[in-house]
Write a structure and sequence with these properties.
The chain is an alpha/beta fold. The chain has a single domain (2-241), classed as Aldolase class I (TIM Barrel, Alpha-Beta Barrel). The protein is 46% helix and 17% strand. The protein is built from eleven helices and eight strands. It has helices at 8-18, 31-40, 59-68, 81-90, 117-129, 142-150, 161-165, 169-187, 203-206, 219-228, 230-241, and strands at residues 2-6, 45-49, 73-77, 94-97, 133-138, 155-159, 191-195, 212-217. It has an eight-stranded parallel β-barrel, surrounded by eight helices. Strand 2 (45-49), helix 3 and strand 3 form a beta-alpha-beta unit. Helix 2 crosses helix 11, helix 6 (142-150) packs parallel to helix 8 (169-187) and helix 10 packs across helix 11 (230-241). It is globular. The chain binds pyridoxine-5'-phosphate (PXP). Residues 6, 8, 49, 76, 96, 98, 106-107, 137, 157, 195-198, 216-220 line the site of pyridoxine-5'-phosphate.
């Protein structure tokens, strides 16, 4: 199973001080340097989300990461004309379509592919025409998985946020939902990824989900990196994923 390292929070820290002047010569930490460290730690790909409000990653970060780091790039993006234009400029290897609300602290639910079928299908088609492989970030729900296949996305990323927030017996139920969605995705010929809220503790339950190709993990890795550095934090997460059997 591959690890996509989400670097958004590296930019979040920089923006906390330099939001008004990200080109300031003192601006730090540098997301590009973090990407190199993630690669050195064994990261298989890098994930960044350029949000409409540019609260963390900036367009220039995305372009530099694309140009300067020799790892596949996954661009998370809202389903908008602006983001489609940006994606066609950045030309990432993968794009993951996500819902985006200005008020949310982080992506709070899966994309409602059933409700936005027309827009999603058109965006998937435009990205695929540009040679970008498309993933849809969805809740582990039968209708959403089916709609994702209908939209001709090559991949789904199962939203593991409810699983991560669940406690006691609810955890088993959430793992069951994820297992069923992964099996359905596989049957429909989709690549199945997962992400959101995965950390060094709950990763053990994630390993129970079959057919996973890649996990996208950000917050816990960047938090751990404050103690041990990004290279080591990525290395530790890769080690935690190592026992996975498809
Ligand atoms: N996958 C998607 C689609 C996301 O939006 C996020 C959060 O940016 C992640 C994965 C990573 O989540 P976390 O930061 O909780 O690991």
């Amino acid at each position: 199973m591959l690890l996509g390292v989400n670097l958004d929070h590296v930019a979040t820290l920089r923006q906390a001080r330099y939001a008004l002047d990200p080109d300031n010569h003192n601006a730090e930490p540098c997301p590009v340097a973090a990407g190199h460290a993630a690669k050195a730690g064994g990261g298989d790909s890098l994930t960044i989300h350029v949000r409409a409000d540019r609260r963390h990653m900036q367009d220039a970060d995305a372009l530099r990461i694309r140009e300067e780091i020799d790892l596949p790039l996954n661009l998370e993006m809202g389903v908008t004309k602006e983001m489609l234009e940006l994606a066609l400029k950045i030309k990432p290897d993968f794009a993951c379509l996500v819902p985006e609300n200005r008020e949310e602290v982080t992506t709070e639910g899966g994309l409602d592919v059933c409700a936005r079928m027309h827009d999603v299908k058109a965006t998937v088609s435009a990205l695929r025409d540009a040679g970008i492989k498309v993933s849809l970030f969805i809740d582990p729900d039968e209708d959403q998985v089916g709609a994702s296949a209908f939209c001709e996305a090559e991949m789904i990323e199962l939203h593991t946020g409810c699983f991560a927030n669940a406690q006691a017996k609810e955890v088993d139920l959430e793992v069951k939902r994820l297992i069923e969605a992964a099996e359905q995705g596989r049957t429909l010929g989709l690549q199945v990824n997962a992400g959101h809220g995965i950390n060094y503790t709950n990763i053990t339950r994630i390993l129970e989900i079959p057919h996973l190709t890649e996990l996208n993990i950000g917050h816990s890795i960047v938090s751990r990196a404050m103690m041990v550095g990004i290279q080591q934090a990525v290395h530790e997460m890769k080690a935690a994923m190592e026992p996975y059997k498809v």
